[in-house]
Specification:
Elements: H1 24-39, H2 47-69, H3 72-87, H4 109-125, H5 129-146, H6 150-165, H7 171-174, H8 178-204, H9 207-215, H10 224-241, H11 250-269, H12 277-297, H13 303-310, H14 314-323, E1 333-334, E2 340-341, H15 354-371, H16 376-386, H17 396-403, H18 407-428
Antiparallel strand pairs: 1-2
Helix pairs in contact: 2-5, 2-6, 2-8, 3-4, 4-5, 6-8, 9-10, 9-11, 10-11, 12-13, 13-14, 16-18, 17-18
Length: 434
């Protein structure tokens, strides 16, 4: 296969004519233009090239896993990673390439990780070279069956090389003597470089796919550079998961990964207030149907027409239209002179409304006028029962004790006083307090 340019697109910092750094927005725009120019002439891989690169990555990864699986420290680190994710309420199964969301594995990965922990303990407990070698063989088979993430394998090779450069003995950390560990680390490093080279070539020749798909999502209102960056991250993951032997083209497989990256980017950065994914999907469908109906009708579609096209109620259409409105900043200027901002015009919820206070005063005055038309005992009963003046409502028992009457007599006085007030209000047309 013809190997093409594998270098990463250049990222430069432009400068203004006087030597001063250009504004950040200008630098970002120029960097994006340089990136697009660098990948413009990168050819698309053929189906045969995709299969060849995919096979090269699989072989390199398998050899890398085989080299590291015979290092007891790798098994110990895998167990530690699993337990940390459990403590942090994260999904520990994500440490395995075998994990597929929504699909239950034939054998739970938790059983495999428990088996790896037992194998590591057996290696450390071995008293003879033969027993130790048998224990390492069993540990290697368990680790290979678990299939740790490739990113973990790559990072462990770096850790191995760093420890070998030190003066101390690496055996306590990795469970092997320096000579054996150096041989394993050299083998793993060779396979790691082969894997990363094949992956880099695969990614470089598909960067144009991300840019092409990002153009269809510009209507989300996100910067093109952010979309491309998110898409490139998912492109790398799609390259790692792609299996060319199944006969599918990579673009077909990677499209889903890249689209999901764009949706996540919009959910995270597209709005100040994050919306659920189903709401964003409804916004996208609504926008598509609005454009289609506008082209057919030559005017803005009505709620009824959108409801029929989307197959949902008109209330749901109206709600979707409201939730897609952009947020307004409290610091946005108001008026042509920009003397005030939106926050200056909002009422303070902790400050009482003057109108409410005025209404309460008017109500209190009306009640006082009505009570003056009753006798002293009726006024006392109503003031006590409804907490007029004091704000504390008293029970029939308390009022009976204060007035030296029975509870039943107090109730009768209260009932008579209320009937008298209602009759006077109806007869004289007095406005009843709120």
């Amino acid at each position: 296969m013809k190997t093409l340019n594998r270098r990463s697109p250049r990222v430069v910092r432009s400068r203004q004519p006087g030597g001063a750094p250009a504004p950040r927005g200008v630098r970002g725009k120029e960097s994006l233009e340089i990136f697009l120019r660098d990948i413009r002439d990168t050819p698309v891989l053929t189906a045969a090239q995709e299969q060849e690169l995919s096979l090269a990555m699989q072989n390199a990864r398998q050899e890398l896993l085989h080299s590291l699986s015979r290092v007891p420290g790798v098994g110990q680190r895998l167990v530690v990673h699993w337990r940390k994710r459990e403590e942090q309420d994260l999904v520990p199964e994500l440490l395995s390439e075998r994990h597929e969301p929504g699909r239950k594995p034939a054998e739970p990965l938790a059983l495999r990780i428990a088996e790896i922990g037992k194998r590591v303990a057996t290696v450390h407990a071995a008293t003879t070279d033969a027993a130790r070698e048998r224990a390492i063989d069993r540990l290697a088979r368990s680790i290979e069956a678990f299939e740790p993430l490739t990113s973990l394998l790559v990072s462990w090779v770096d850790d191995l090389l760093v420890d070998l450069e030190g003066k101390g003995s690496p055996k306590p950390r990795w469970g092997l003597r320096r000579e054996e560990l150096a041989r394993r680390a050299h083998e793993a490093d060779v396979h790691r470089k082969a894997y990363l080279d094949a992956r880099s070539t695969f990614v470089q020749h598909n960067l144009r796919l991300v840019v092409h798909m990002a153009k269809d999502f510009k209507s989300l209102g996100l910067p093109m550079a952010d979309l491309i960056q998110e898409g490139n991250v998912s492109l790398i993951r799609a390259v790692e998961k792609f299996d060319g032997s199944r006969g599918f083209r990579f673009s077909t497989y990677a499209a889903w990964w890249i689209q999901q990256a764009f949706h996540r980017c919009f959910q995270r950065d597209g709005r100040v207030v994050r919306l659920p994914s189903q709401v964003l999907d409804r916004h996208r469908h609504l926008r598509r149907e609005e454009g289609r109906l506008y082209g057919q009708l030559g005017r803005e579609p009505t709620l009824a027409e959108l409801s029929s096209a989307l197959g949902i109620d008109e209330e749901d259409v109206e709600r979707a239209q409201r939730t897609r409105e952009p947020e307004s900043s409290l610091e946005a200027p108001v008026g042509s002179e920009n003397a005030n901002v939106v926050a200056d015009l909002l009422a303070d919820p902790e400050v009482p409304d003057p109108l409410d206070g005025l209404a309460r005063e008017q109500d209190a005055s009306s009640v006082a006028k009505l009570l003056r038309r009753l006798d002293s005992r009726e006024r006392a009963v109503l003031r006590g029962r409804f907490g007029l003046g004091s704000g504390e409502e008293k029970t029939l028992q308390v009022m009976a004790q204060e007035l030296g009457l029975s509870r039943e007599r107090v109730r009768q006085i209260e009932k008579k006083a209320l009937e008298s007030l209602r009759e006077r209000i109806g007869r004289e047309g007095i406005e009843c307090p709120g």
